[in-house]
Amino acid sequence: MRTANRLTRWMNDLRGRSCRGGISQVNNCVCLRRSRATCESPREPDNSATFPELCARIPTRVATLVRVMSKSLPLRHPDTSDPEFMTRRAWWLVIANVLVPGAGPLLSGNRRFGRLGLRLWLYALLAIVVIVLLMLVLRGPLLFFLTTWWGLGIVAAVVLAYGIWMGITMLETLRQVKLFRVDAFARGLVTVVAVILGVIPIFVGGFGAANILQAQSAVQSIFGGPSAGLKLPADGRLNVLLLGGDAGKTREGMRPDSISVMSFNAFTGQATTIGIPRTTVNFGFAEGPMHDLYPEGYYNCNVSVCYLNSVYTEVTYHDYDMYQDAESKGSDKGIEATKDAVEWITGLDIQYYVFINMDGFSDLIDAMGGVTIDVKEPVVMGANDEGQEGWKPPVGTIEPGVQTLDGYTALWYARSRYEATDYDRMQRQRELQDAIIAQLPKAMIGKSGPILGVLDEVVKTDMPKGEAGIIADLVLKSRGRDDSVKLQLSPPNMDPDNPDFDAARVLIDEAIKNPQPEETAASTEAPAP
To answer: What family does this belong to (predicted)?
Structure first.
């Protein structure tokens, strides 16, 4: 009896006692509100109909409703008897879901699924807008997030998850298409296209996540150690020691060939680069183990020559028991000893260091697809004949002009001493380092995999994860400024064989406090080491 009462009430609704969805029953005539005038002539409702008669009318009423809904909402309530229309509808749903993931199910009737897809799509657009805005106004915090292992892990998970979700929305769209009602000729084509379009975002998401996880691995291996911590700017500046090292066959261990300090204004990004000749002598050390070992200065050292770059060699070759916590901070005793010497020479507090292994330099440049250099004068690819064992004649010449060098040629550009001074070579090494730093971000866009594969073999630093993003932001800021300074502590500014460190510190202080865009060039009138 209860079921009969429900059906009776439903039939009465169809007769006009209620109106839902914009459809009205007027005098037993089903019509849209906008077209009541087109209804049949009025008839008195048959309120005396029995229950079996009402049940008999249900299929007719339902069919009428379906026809009206098919006309008003053809994608959601299609006329499944028309294969041509169902084919067009299938293509419309597939294309809509490609443009807006979730639109296909939403338009075809699965509202809950479609609305979820639409929300996620809007969230993705919002995230892109936020990232763009952060890159424009707050790049530092964004890069901080992207140079932490947990930040990259979150990004990788989101990229992979959204790629999978886009694939799922396409599969749901394909289910809503009702393939068995589509034209037989187009049925297979619709299926293949939908499946391909569903697999592509999954593949892209997986590929992107794999590259991000590779970057996460590189961040984990390159930046800092377990005890590395954030260091605050000193006098409003962050100072980074740059070392370019090489291990030759005739050398005792590793020797830094290129030594410089990049001093950044922690707020504006203004950069002052201070180049220090590796052959500098008669220097001292900041407070620490090396100062205790050489309290009067670096004289009578335990290696063949007492140059600045000999500090690293002596400490590591003889394995002095000092700087025991260096390894836990992502450094080593040779670098810490060199840092103490540079702090004494420049009078600056060095927060971090970056060590570039020249042995792997060529691999990094090849992974980048080459590096573009403006060669000022011919560079002979060879070494001077000084009677050393294994000397070989030059193998070629790098001609002047703007050109893209591969790894092998770029390494010769940085190392060549043929008929050139040590200061010439130092200058070329810094030019090459600057070019790589400037061109690496662009190269990462299309060659991130090969670059990340060799980066941890070339670069070593004690910057903690996250802080590297802050330094990267300062580097990018400095590229857009015209007051960056390059100061070379070589003749005429300073004679590395007889240095006046007090005068050098005055030059450094003036370069930092009153930056002038023009570079103080190094003299080329100096003997090769």
So the answer is: Belongs to the LytR/CpsA/Psr (LCP) family.
